[in-house]
Design goal:
Blueprint (H helix, E strand, L loop, with lengths): L3 E7 L3 H13 L7 E4 L4 E3 L4 H5 L9 E3 H4 L5 E3 L3 E5 L4 E4 L4 E9 L4 E2 L7 H4 L5 E2 L7 H9 L4 E7 L9 H16 L5 E7 L8 H14 L2 E4 L1 E7 L4 E6 L5 E5 L2 E3 L4 E2 L2 H4 L25 E3 L12 H19 L12 E8 L2 E7 L18 H17 L7
Parallel strand pairs: 1-2, 1-8, 2-5, 8-19, 10-17, 11-12, 11-17, 12-13
Antiparallel strand pairs: 3-4, 6-7, 7-8, 9-18, 14-15, 15-16, 20-21
Helix pairs in contact: 1-9
Length: 397
């Protein structure tokens, strides 16, 4: 096993694989000189979990063996990172192996904190408590929707950053459609409980989604954060973030988006900012303290939505700037904060939100993307997965 790499990449998710593939396509000298540290055996395309929870797809179709997505010219180091020693240009894994590098790319993704809500872990996957953020339990979301007989159906959004910020509401719109089809909509009260101040940050798309909510008769409560679940009693307890008061609500269905955070080994490292995220320059993605380290993806402190679409724009910037750094040139590639969220608003309907750091729309289609469209739904369901597996992960897109 090699112990030194020209480029060492932490994470075999979207960001890590994209950077590796692009570096290998751009710089032949890196063949055999890139290591990817990733402990898991399966690589998931998680954006499809919304459709799994909505009863549209089989969850087994959302994952592939990690070996098949890691570029063959890179080494897979199947291990977990324990610590970083950036002054020594090294990392230590949990099995006490030490690897050194010339350049380090840190992209381990986000950590889901299932213990951040009291009682959630004990009741998830039963008592009509479900979450599309768990591969193990995502099928139970559809089981809960399919068997729903009426009453309160509550959908939550926490007071932390989350991967794919639109996902907490997407499944709600699908559930509302499903309740119509099963004949229980009239006896159903759909509730969206969000810690955010509004349904969406970007005004253009917020206005569109507010119309969707009004049309579907969904009751919204903002600045309220789920803190506890009593599964057997079917009660959810929220904290009002303005007053600090606790609010208890009964439910017959509860879809939880759990709080999320930077991975613990990042939070405990010299790479983290005061909130635990990888501390990088927002335009160059170079670490603010260590010039041979770059960070991107969900674990970074970039002030934009944590999505695969954002990573698609971040990866080329990291690759260009690493190569320029290797060759002694100034870092010229810049990331403008682009992110995208395909917001499913029902079966066969979708709003394609695209925007930048300034929360301004940055649309790529030759039409108004704030309008719900059937074509964009099929774009998400069929074309985006193909682009992901065959393009993004191959370094072609």
């Amino acid at each position: 096993m090699k112990k030194h790499y020209t480029v060492l990449i932490i994470g075999g998710g979207t960001a890590g694989i994209m950077v590796a593939a692009r570096l290998l396509r751009s710089f032949k000298m890196l063949h055999g000189n890139i290591g990817i540290v990733e402990p898991t055996d399966v690589h998931y395309y998680q954006p499809l979990w919304t459709l799994v929870g909505g009863g549209v797809l089989d969850k087994k179709k959302t994952g592939r063996n990690m070996r098949t997505v890691i570029p063959k010219e890179a080494d897979w180091i199947k291990a977990r990172v324990e610590s970083f020693s950036p002054y020594q240009n090294s990392i230590t894994t949990l099995d006490k192996n030490i690897f050194t590098y010339d350049y380090l790319v840190v992209a381990p993704g986000i950590q889901v904190n299932w213990n951040g809500i009291k009682g959630l872990r004990e009741t998830l996957g039963k008592n009509n408590v479900c979450s599309n953020y768990s591969y193990e339990h995502v099928h139970y979301t559809w089981e809960t929707i399919r068997t729903f007989k009426g009453g309160n159906a509550i959908f939550t959004h926490p007071n932390t950053p989350v991967k794919c910020g639109g996902a907490p509401q997407k499944i709600m719109y699908l559930a509302e459609d499903a309740f119509h089809k099963s004949g229980v909509r009239k006896q159903s009260n759909i509730i969206f409980e969000s810690a955010n101040p509004a349904i969406f940050d970007v005004e253009k798309y917020r206005k569109s989604l507010e119309k969707v909510i009004e049309r579907k008769g969904i009751n919204t409560y903002f600045r309220e954060h789920l803190i506890e679940v009593e599964g057997e009693k079917k009660q959810a307890i929220f904290e009002d973030l303005e007053t600090g008061c606790r609010i208890k609500k009964n439910f017959q269905m509860l879809h939880v988006t759990p709080p999320m955070e930077a991975p613990t080994f990042i939070k405990n490292s010299l790479l983290a900012d005061e909130k635990g995220w990888i501390d990088v320059h927002k335009y160059t993605l170079q670490h603010k303290s260590f010039s041979n380290i770059f960070g991107l993806g969900d674990a970074s402190n970039l002030p934009t939505s944590k999505t695969g679409a954002a990573i698609r724009k971040q990866a080329p910037v990291v690759v260009k700037n690493i190569i320029d750094l290797m060759q002694g040139r100034p870092l010229e590639a810049q990331y403008d904060g682009y992110s995208s969220c395909p917001i499913v608003t029902g079966y066969n309907k979708l709003v394609l939100a695209e925007f930048d750091y300034n929360k301004q729309p940055k649309e790529t289609m030759p039409f108004n993307q704030a309008i719900e469209r059937r074509s964009m739904y099929y774009f998400k369901k069929y074309l985006l997965p193909m682009m992901y597996w065959r393009g993004m992960l191959k370094g072609r897109l």
